[in-house]
Amino acid sequence: MKQGSTDDPFAEDSDEDEPDSDSEVGRSTQDPPASESPVNAQGAATPATEPDDDDEPAAKSFSQTLPYIYKRDAVKEHRSQRPVYLRDYNEARIPELKDAVEGDLGEEVTKTDVLEAAMETALDHPELVAATLRTERYGYDWE
Fold this sequence. Notes:
With 143 residues, the protein is mainly α. Helices cover 37% and strands 0% of the residues. It has two domains: 19-81, no CATH class; 83-143, no CATH class. The relative contact order is 0.15.
């Protein structure tokens, strides 16, 4: 397959990082806004239950309790691709982040899941994003 503008910029060259499609089951692309997320005991925002596309009440209650990794058939299912432009410094750190997350969880995690979770963490904590933008690397609020 020829690579083009519709290719996932974070996709692996091989499928060795991606769990078998039989071991995973879809997720909704609509996440609740961070302002609607309750806060857990550690002070971190916890997302509300994801909306479900099924109209049947029994299916809704089951799928709301089932974690995302088990609801999807494939890693990219129900995900929108967005262009993200990264400098070499950050792109080179993605495998380190993935390895650190896997070490913390004690299991393999797909790069797609790690990157979306990193984005979700940033969305839930805009103050951390602002702090990074104030560093010399980005130069916001620079005087």
